[in-house]
Amino acid sequence: MVKNWFLLGDEAFEGSDFVWGRIELSKEQQKNWQGIVMEQLNSAIEKSAKVRELIENSNFIDCDFHFFEKPKVTKEDVAEFIKPLEERFKDKRIAYNISYSREFCWISIDFMNVDFQAEEENPEEE
After folding, report:
1. Which of 36, 89, 105, 112 could form a disulfide with 25 if both were Cys (CB 3.0 to 4.6 A apart)?
2. Residue ranges of the domains in the chain?
3. Contacts of 83 (CB under 8 A, 6+ apart)
């Protein structure tokens, strides 16, 4: 079962096979998505020792941005959002993906530990 550490904090790690950090936004909230996401990220980190441990034990941050088509959020907007994450989490690589939908808006931020050396030695076949 997957549990959301943004919502559950330490509780997300109890009996869970996998945890993720995901924030769902309304069209109105999408207008201030950067502030909302950063506020919730800071709050989750502050309140949860297990989230802090997850972050400490990671070397990679995978971010997925799924926005409503309108109002349009640009790739440049997302790149600007990523800059403070890069500053804050200097020891971690960050990758992100952007997509658009008419039906939903959500942003996920997942901290993971990736063996980059193994990936470079065994590149995926295309």
Report:
1. 105
2. 23-115
3. none
Q: Which two tokens stand for residue 62?
A: 């995978």
Strands (E), 7-120: 18-20, 22-24, 60-68, 93-101, 106-112
Check if the beta carbon of residue 101 is closer than 8 Å to that of residue 24. Answer: no
Residues of the chain with pLDDT under 50: 126
User: How far lies 94's CA from each of 37, 47, 58, 62, in Å?
Assistant: 16, 23, 11, 6
Domain 23-115 -> CATH class: alpha beta
Strands in 60-68's sheet, in edge-to-edge order, are: 22-24, 106-112, 60-68, 93-101
* 4 beta partners: 20
Say what the pTM is. 0.86
